[in-house]
Specification:
This protein is α/β, with parallel strands linked by helices and about 260 residues long. The protein contains 9 helices and 13 strands. It is globular. Pfam families: SBP_bac_3.
C-alpha cells in the first residue's frame, strides 16, 4: 500500500511538473518564437488610407505600418507586414498566420473574448459621410437608406444592428468613396480620421455628420495578440509606452495624420 501511494505521488508530481512546464511554454511561446526568428509578423488590411496602403513601390506604408516598424525596432527584431482582408483578420491570427494585428481595430468586449489587446494605441470616433447635396441632413435622417461599411469592422456590426439600414460592405475606404460619389450608396460609416484625411486629399464634396455620443463615442484602437501570451503583451506594451514618451509616436502621427491621435 505504501509503495502504491509513493508511486501515485510520484506520478502526480510528474504530471503537475509537466503541466507547469507546458503552461510556461505556452505563455512564453509567441515571444520566444519571435525572438528566435528575429522577426515579428504583423497583419493589416493594406486598404485603409492613411493607416495602411500600398504605395507606388508596392510597399505597405501608413500610420499602422510605421507603428509596426517602430515597435519591432524596440523589440530588436525585423517586421514583416502581411496584408489580409479585415473580415478574416482575427481568424488568421488564431490560426498563427501572423503574430499580431495592427489594423486600426476597435477594442470591443466581443473581440476581447477572442484575443488580447495592447494599447489603445490611438482613439477615433464614428463618422457618417454623405454627399454634399444629400437629403440626409442629420443623424436622425439616417434610416431606410443604403450605407457602406468596411466588412467586419465595428461600424459594420453597428449598422446592421440598427435594423433600418441597408448595409453594403467593402474592403476599403476608396471603394466606398467612389460608390458614394456615384450614388450607389447614400452614406458611409467609418472612423473619423481616415475619412477626413481621404476627403481632404481627393477634394470630394461631402458633408460629415457626427452621431450623438451614445451612437459613436470616442473608441480605443488596439493591437491584437493571441491570448495567454503575457510576456509578448508586456513587451509590446512597454515598447508602445516608450514610443509615446520619447516623441516617436507623435512624429509618426504627424507624418501620416497631421495631428497627434493618441
Amino acid at each position: 500500500m505504501l509503495i502504491k501511494k509513493l508511486k501515485d505521488l510520484i506520478v502526480a508530481s510528474t504530471v503537475l511538473a509537466g503541466a507547469l512546464v507546458f503552461t510556461s511554454a505556452v505563455h512564453a511561446d509567441d515571444l520566444k518564437s519571435i525572438q528566435d526568428a528575429q522577426e515579428i509578423r504583423i497583419a493589416m488590411s493594406g486598404q485603409y488610407v492613411p493607416f495602411s496602403f500600398v504605395n507606388e513601390n508596392n510597399k505597405v506604408v501608413g500610420f499602422d505600418a510605421s507603428i509596426s516598424e517602430a515597435l519591432a525596432e524596440r523589440m530588436g527584431v525585423k517586421v514583416t507586414i502581411i496584408t489580409t482582408p479585415f473580415d478574416g483578420i482575427i481568424a488568421g491570427l488564431l490560426a498563427k498566420k501572423y503574430d499580431a494585428i495592427i489594423a486600426s481595430m476597435t477594442i470591443t468586449p466581443e473581440r476581447q473574448r477572442a484575443v488580447d489587446f495592447v494599447g489603445p494605441y490611438y482613439h477615433a470616433g464614428r463618422t457618417i459621410v454623405v454627399k454634399d447635396n444629400s437629403s440626409i441632413k442629420s443623424f436622425d435622417d439616417l434610416k431606410d437608406v443604403t450605407v457602406g461599411v468596411t466588412l467586419g469592422d465595428a461600424h459594420d456590426k453597428w449598422a446592421r444592428a440598427r435594423g433600418n439600414l441597408k448595409v453594403r460592405s467593402y474592403k476599403g475606404l476608396q471603394e466606398m468613396l467612389v460608390d458614394l460619389d456615384a450614388g450607389r450608396i447614400d452614406a458611409l460609416v467609418m472612423d473619423s480620421v481616415p475619412v477626413l484625411v481621404a476627403v481632404k486629399e481627393t477634394g470630394q464634396k461631402v458633408r460629415i455628420i457626427t452621431p450623438p455620443e451614445s451612437d459613436g463615442g470616442i473608441e480605443g484602437m488596439g493591437i491584437a495578440l493571441r491570448k495567454n501570451n503575457p510576456e509578448l503583451k508586456a513587451t509590446m506594451q512597454k515598447a508602445l509606452e516608450e514610443m509615446l514618451a520619447d516623441g516617436t509616436y507623435e512624429k509618426i502621427s504627424m507624418k501620416w495624420i497631421g495631428n497627434d491621435i493618441r
